[in-house]
Specification:
GO molecular function: nucleotide binding; oxidoreductase activity
InterPro entries: Gfo/Idh/MocA-like_OxRdtase_N (IPR000683), Gfo/Idh/MocA_oxidrdct_glycsds (IPR050463), GFO_IDH_MocA-like_dom (IPR055170), NAD(P)-bd_dom_sf (IPR036291)
Pfam family, one: GFO_IDH_MocA
Shape: globular
Domain GFO/IDH/MocA-like oxidoreductase: 158-304
Distance between the termini: 42 Å
Mean pLDDT: 94
Largest sheet: 9 strands, mixed
Low-confidence stretches: 1-15
Bound molecules: alpha-L-sorbopyranose
Domain Gfo/Idh/MocA-like oxidoreductase N-terminal: 24-148
Strand order of the largest sheet: 16-15-14-13-7-12-11-8-17
Number of strands: 17
Length: 407
């Protein structure tokens, strides 16, 4: 078949080098909020990091031709498609990056895997556990590299927290409490965007934000064994809105619709290693724009992190001299802090967008060396199992254990 590359055709054959580097030609499906974050990150990877492979922004796909063309031009993509299947079919694409709403992830990822493309998929992996398992099966069968986009674990301070825990600096872990609090949905006239419609999003705030703190919990503390959850929908009807829009939607006419997903969720968790977790996610916490925070307490120390201050890690170590004991604030911008040394001299902070750059660096490393970096689709499936258990627990009022899925 024939496809058109509409402008700036810099197509390279697979394996043809760019200088000393092998290009990884990316095809991204979707181009709004996450499309912007991913495009920026892909462009910046070679700016800061030296790897044997380098991403090329080959083509972006979207249904609205004017929209996708403008996005391609603005964000630096070499070409565009108006049909995601065409994008996946193209033989000048090595990696498919899925940044579309949740209900499209499974189909796109399975088609991409069958076409032999590596895949990066936005969170949550799918609408259901069953769908996510099919996605994992497809990538395993195809032998492609896969990753899910949980960007927060790529903040240098979070990576450093992981290092401290692995070195045993906190000792045995007893507690994790984490929140992700927002307030963009509180106005009763805020329309029903796709994030508040079950058929598109799978769940409400749980799949949107809960999935992020579950990822942090699994990364830092370990697997979750059982959960007890509750969920609430505070506003049951909303005006219908522009479904394609992100967080600043237009209201479409006078029609109203039922809200069939939760505005808030909270759950208790028992980790396999005996630690206890308390988690809360909500869109109804006035003044909290992105209150993604955690504290972890171990026998020898504690750590705290807050994404609105993402370079800093607060660390308390019981071994400190009495009198000097207390939480110290580590600004994780030193060369000792993972990823940080690639950017600026110490003290020169980085931001939200750098968490995506670091994630892309991990992905490029996986593609170069032939492994699927964590968080990958296995993590996505385990994460989805926790989400599903919280929903079932909220419905039944019972503790739910997490199936030992992948053993
Ligand atoms: C909206 O709630 C949102 O953009 C999420 O979808 C993102 O995953 C989170 O990082 C920030 O908030």
């Amino acid at each position: 078949f024939e496809y058109k590359i509409r402008f700036k055709n810099i197509v390279r054959l697979k394996g043809e080098m760019m200088g000393s580097k092998t290009p990884v030609r990316v095809g991204m499906i979707g181009y709004k909020f996450m499309g912007k974050a991913h495009s920026h990150a892909l462009r910046d990877v070679p700016f800061y990091f030296d790897q044997g492979v380098t991403p090329v922004l080959q083509a972006v796909a979207g249904r609205d031709e004017n929209g996708v063309k403008a996005a391609a031009e603005k964000m630096g993509w070499n070409s565009y498609e108006t049909d995601w299947r065409r994008l996946i079919e193209r033989d000048d694409i090595d990696l498919i990056d899925i940044v579309t709403p949740n209900n499209t992830h499974a189909e796109m990822a399975i088609v991409a895997a069958e076409a032999g493309k590596h895949i990066l998929c936005e969170k949550p992996l799918a609408l259901t556990l069953e769908q996510s398992k099919r996605m994992l099966e497809a990538v395993k069968k195809a032998g492609v590299i896969h990753m899910i986009c949980h960007n927060y674990r790529f903040a240098p301070a979070v990576q450093y927290a992981k290092q401290l825990i692995e070195e045993g600096r906190l000792g045995k872990i007893y507690h994790m409490r984490a929140t992700f609090l927002q307030d963009w949905n509180m106005d009763p006239n805020f329309p029903l965007i796709w994030r508040s419609r079950k058929e598109i999003s799978g769940s409400g705030v749980l799949g949107d934000l809960g999935t992020h703190i579950i990822d942090l919990a699994r990364f830092l503390v370990g697997e979750i064994a059982e959960v007890s959850g509750m969920m609430e929908t505070f506003i049951k009807k909303r005006p219908l809105g522009d479904m394609t829009s992100n967080l600043r939607p237009q209201i479409d006419g006078d029609a109203w619709g039922e809200v069939d997903v939760e505005d808030a969720a909270a759950f208790l968790a028992r980790f396999e290693n005996g630690a206890l977790g308390v988690f809360e996610v909500t869109r109804f916490c006035r003044g909290n724009r992105a209150g993604n925070r955690f504290e972890i307490n171990g026998e020898k120390g504690s750590i705290r992190w807050d994404m609105e201050n993402l370079n800093n890690l607060q660390v308390y170590l019981e071994d400190d001299e009495r009198g000097l004991q207390g939480f110290r604030t580590i600004n994780c911008t030193e060369v000792e802090h993972p990823y940080a040394g690639a950017y600026w001299p110490a003290g020169h902070i980085i931001g939200y967008e750098h968490t995506f750059i670091n994630l892309m660096v991990a992905l490029m490393d996986g593609i170069e060396k032939g492994y699927s970096p964590s968080p990958n689709f296995e993590d996505g499936v385990r994460n989805q199992a926790v989400l599903e258990a919280v929903i079932q627990s909220a419905e039944t009022g019972k503790w739910m254990s997490i199936p030992r899925l992948l053993e």
